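S1.2 Input.
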Amino acid sequence: MITNTELEYKGDLYPTKIVSFEHEVDSISFHTDNSVILKVTVLRDSLIRFRFTTKGYFSNDFSYAVDKNHSHGYNHLEISEVADYYQIKTSKVKCRIQKNDMRLSIFDLEDTIILEDELGFHWEESYEYGGNIVKMSKASKDGECFYGLGDKATQMNLKGKRLENFATDQYAFQKDQEPLYKVVPFYIGLQNKQSYGIFFDNTFRTYFDFCHERRNVTSFWAEGGEMNYYFIYGPEMQDVVTTYTHLTGKPELPPLWALGYHQCKWSYYPESNLKEVAAKFRELKIPCDALYLDIDYMEGFRCFTWNKEYFPDPKKMVAELAEDGFKTVVIIDPGIKIDKEYSIYKEALEKDYFCKRADGPYMKGKVWPGECNFPDYTNPVVREWWAGLFKELISDIGVKGVWNDMNEPAVMEVPNKTFPMDVRHDYDGNPCSHRKAHNIYGTQMARATYHGVKRFAYPKRPFVITRSAYAGAQRYTSSWTGDNVATWEHLWIANIQVQRMSISGMGFTGSDIGGFAEQPSGELYARWIQLGVFHPFCRTHSSGDHGDQEPWAFDEEVINITRKFVNLRYQLLPYLYTMFWQYIEEGIPMLKPLVYYDQEDIQTHYRNDEFVFGNQILVCPILEPNSLGRRMYIPRGQWYNYWSNEKVKGGKEIWVDTKFDQIPIFVKAGAIIPKYPVQQYVGELEFDELTLDIYYKEGKEKSVVYEDAQDGYDYKKGRYSFLSFKTTGKENELIIQLHKEGKYDTNYSKYKINLIGLPFKVKTIEIDNVEVSFDKNTLEKEGYLIVDKEFTALHIIGE
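S1.3 Output.
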C-alpha cells in the first residue's frame, strides 16, 4: 500500500509559470515549466481556439464536429508582451495570458472584460482510465445569462443550472431531467449587452455548471480528452450563433416536401393499415407529405429487410403511395441481429465491421431483434459499407427518407442503457474506447446513412432524421426531441427544446406532436399541432401502445383545427423555405428566442414561450388547458395581430384573446409574407400567382423570398430565384421595390398583393413609373391587387 505520497492523492493540478512561447502563422503556443502547453489559434478576429495539453505534446488533432470544408481567416493578429502577461490582439478582441499561472482574460477593444478565468484550466489525474479529467472555470458577473446547449428540457436561461452531456435513451423523460439524447457542448453568455460563445469540443461525458455550485463561477469539465474550446465573440448573439454554425457546419437544402406535414406511429402495419391512413388524409383534406414505417415493417426487426406477410410487395406499395403524393420514410436502427442466415450480419462478421470489447469479443447487446452486434460507424470503411446497404431501399423500392433511432446507442436490459465503456472504436484512425466515442456514435451512423441515401436518391435530395446527435450532426441530418409524453408539461418542454436546438446550430428539429408516450386529450393535441406547424420539422408520432393519434382520432373540432393549421403551414412553405435558405447560407437560426431577437431588452432574457418564426412572424403557443387567451411579451417595434390585423406597439407584455382554433400570432410591421395556395402535398398544384401579404409600416423594412425547383441540385448551379423586397411606407404612399437574383424562373407569372394596415385610400398605382389602372372596388372591398411578377418598383399613392 502506498501512503503519504503524491500518487496517493494528487487532487487538482494547475499550470505553473510560462517559460517560453512560439508564434507560427495563426497559432501561438505557450509552455510552462510543468509541461503544460496552451495553443491559441486565431481562426477569425472573433473566433479563437484554446487547446491545452499536460503531457508536453499534443495528440492528433481531430474533430467530428468542426466542418473542415469551411474556411476561416482573420484581418489582424498582433502579439505583445508586458511584465505580467502576453497579449494577443485581433481586430475584435484582446486576449491576455498571465505569465505566472496561464490564466487568461478576453477584452473588447475598449478594454471591457468579456470573459476571464477564475481558476482557469486545471486537471485531475484519472488513474482508473488513464489520461485526465480536464476542467475549466470562468468568473461570472452578476446578471450574466446563459443559453444554448442543445437538447435540454429546462428553462431557456440556464443560469443556476448544472447539466450533463451523455447521449442517453430517456424514454418519457421529465422536465429538468438529465442527460438526454443529444450532445451540443456549446453555450452563449450574455452580460452587459455583450454576447460571447463557448464551444467545448470534447466527446467524452461533459458537464456544465452555470453558477449552480458557486454563485459567480461558470465551469465545464470532461471525464477525459483535451481541454479544447472555442471562444466566439459577438457582441450580438446573432453573431455568436452564426459563427458557431459556420464552425460546425450547415446542411444542404432539404427537398421541399420534407418541410411538409409528416405522420408516424409505432407502427403502421400491415400495408392495408398504412393505405387506410393515407386515404383518410386525402378524404379529410388534411395535407400530408410523408408516412413513416417503424420497426414492424422489418422481418424480425432485421434492418434492410421487409416482413412479406405485412408488406408483400413494398416497391408496388411505395409507388402507389407516391401516386397520391405520399413519400415513404423507414426506420433503421444500429443493432444488427445475430443470425447466421441474415446476409447483412454475415457480411459484417466476415469483414470484421462490428464493435469489439477491450478483450476481443464482439460487443453484444439486446435491442428489438434480440441479441445484436453493432457496426463501428467511427470506421470510415464501415460507414462506406453502411451507405451501400441503402441501394435496395432507395434505388429499387423508392423509399424517400430514412429515420435513425436507438443510436445513442441504446441497449436494453443493462443498467447504463448503452455499451460498456471498454468497447473499442476506430474513431477515424484514432483508436479509443466507448468513453470517447459514445457521444458521436449516433452522428456517425446518421452520417453514413446520409451518404447512402444521398448516393441512391440522386439527382433528388436526401432526407435523414436522427434521435441522437453531437455538435455538427446538422451537416447530415434533421432530428427530433425523442420519446416525449402526452402532457401539458411536455408541450412546454417541446417549445423550449426546439428553440434551443435552433440557436445551437441544429435548426431542422421538431418534437413528436401530441407526445409519443401516453394519450393526449383532443385539446392537448390541438394545442400541440398549433405549435408544431411552426417547428422546422413537423411530425405527429406516437406509441401504438397508448391508442391512436391521427387527427381523426379526435372529434370534429380537433380535425378542423388540425386542418386549419396544417393548411397554414402549407401556405407558409415559401416563407419556411426561405428561412431554411438563410440558415444554410448565413447560419441564421430558423427559430429565434426573444433574447436572440433583441438581447438589449432585458425583458427578453428570461422569456421561454414566445419565439420569432423566421424573421417576421411572432408565435406564442397556448400551453395550459382551458385557455382562451394568455399574457405574452411583444418585442419592441410594431406588430400586427395575424387574425385581426390589429396593430400593436411592442416592448411590453399584453393580454391576447384567442379562440380554441387560434394561438397568438403576430407579423412584424413592414413585412412581406409569401404564401402558396393550400396543397394536399408539395407539387400537387400548378398555380399562376404567388400571394404576398404586405403589412404597412411607416418607414423601411426588407423581406426576402427564396425559391427553386423544390428538389434536386440545380440551385447549386445558380438556378434559383432570390427576391429582395424593400418597403418604404410614408403618410400617403407605399413604395415596394423588388430586386431579383438567380436564373430560376418560377411557374407563376403574377403576384396577388394583399395590403394590410394601409392608412389611406388608394388613388393611384404606378408600376415602374407608369400609372396603371386597377379595380378600385376590389381593392377597397377585398384588399388585394394583382400585378405582373416582373415589376421592379410599385408605388401605391393615397388620395
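S1.4 Remarks. The two ends are 97 Å apart (CA to CA).
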